[in-house]
Automatic annotation (TrEMBL):
GO terms for molecular function: cAMP binding; cAMP-dependent protein kinase inhibitor activity; protein kinase A catalytic subunit binding. The keyword Iron-sulfur does not apply. The gene is LOC113400087. The keyword Chaperone does not apply. SUPFAM superfamilies: cAMP-binding domain-like (SSF51206), Dimerization-anchoring domain of cAMP-dependent PK regulatory subunit (SSF47391). Keywords: cAMP, cAMP-binding, Nucleotide-binding, Phosphoprotein, Repeat. It comes from Vanessa tameamea. 3',5'-cyclic AMP 2 binds at residues 317, 326. 3',5'-cyclic AMP 1 binds at residues 194, 203. This is cAMP-dependent protein kinase type II regulatory subunit.
Amino acid sequence: MSRPQGGRIQVPDDLREILLEFTISYLLEQPGDVINYAVEFFTRLQNNRTTTIVRGPSAGTPDESIISDEEEPPVARFNNRRKSVFAETYDPEEDDSDEGAPAVFPKSDAQRARLAEAVRGILLFRSLDAQQMQQVLDAMFEKRSVPGEYVIRQGDDGDNFYVIENGVFDVLVTGDDGVEKAVHTYEGSGSFGELALMYNMPRAASVRAQSPGALWAMDRHTFRRILLKSAFKKRKLYEELLDKVPMLKALQPYERANLADALLPRTLIDCELIIRQGDTADGMYFVEDGSVSIRIARDDGNEHEIKRLGKGGYFGELALVTHKPRAASAYAVGPTKVAFLDVETFERLLGPCMEIMKRNIDDYEEQLVKLFGDKSNLTDVR
Ligand code: 1OR
Ligand code: 1OR
């Protein structure tokens, strides 16, 4: 803080920004104890500032081995939406959106079939039970778009949540410099428009049709009544876990939120088999609690532990990257909780982490040689 000659205290921009960030984070999460939350928040901020991924002796140039993450925000933060966060914040516990009759838009069998196809794979719908899913399908209505049409404009209030039936849609963000930039493109599937409805904030981005398109929309009220609690809970539940996985720092906060929607919890008992060496892969896992033993079968048939993973560790990615059978088996050590990510979502969401994963796989090979002298009697990981 500087004190210029006139005696007026100037608040540095950094300080203003950090305190604003902290306040927003506190208001969004409503954790109760301010001091404890502040300690946790600023520790996280400090850790995030210089996130490094330390590699083994096989590391290439120093530049390659350090992933600096100075831009990593300490909490999920979506563009310039924080300007209005004070106006309204979301507290799912005090959510009053349960009131009123749910909207029902009657549909023909053909429409139902098209809608069912469009919502398949929508991550936000994963935690719904059958009855909720039915309500969602009843409440959705069709909307067509023409090329160049803005379905959503950044800064507007949120009206609907959209599921894509077909068509190509660009996501555009106008930065502080006033320039509109494409940050993402949906090609014929997916959903958008949930952020403004979940967090009660202005639209974080614009969404513009690139081609003629067919959308299914759900109004704000229905979204909040049926989807909000489950989606919000899940994002919050997994936010902490995903924060602990260094590789995922390569994702933007928005992408991590999508990842949280996609994860499926699995509870395991001591010694339970999670992955069997040689099997075909259907997904990968993150360790939420407890530990996991990775074991490789030797020529004599005996299994040998090569690695133990704790909270924040991940496994089962190798077969997804190499498209080969599982290279090892994985077992729970004590009661353990893992989060499963299916292969389709892995391919869709973890593209930005691919380089880091591949580098870590290089390290597997190094370790392998150290452990066994050479890797000639084991399958090459590539
Ligand atoms: P919304 O209600 O804010 C715009 O309206 C929608 O665009 C938003 O919800 C999301 O559903 C969708 N950042 C923010 N919103 C995005 C993004 C995004 N991508 C799609 N939407 N980013 C792109 C990440 C690949 C981050 C840009 C910095
Ligand atoms: P997966 O899909 O092959 C088994 O299923 C998982 O165990 C694998 O993905 C990896 O996540 C993990 N070093 C460390 N982890 C390994 C190794 C490994 N093999 C498999 N996993 N290796 C080096 C030994 C110290 C073995 C390389 C073949």
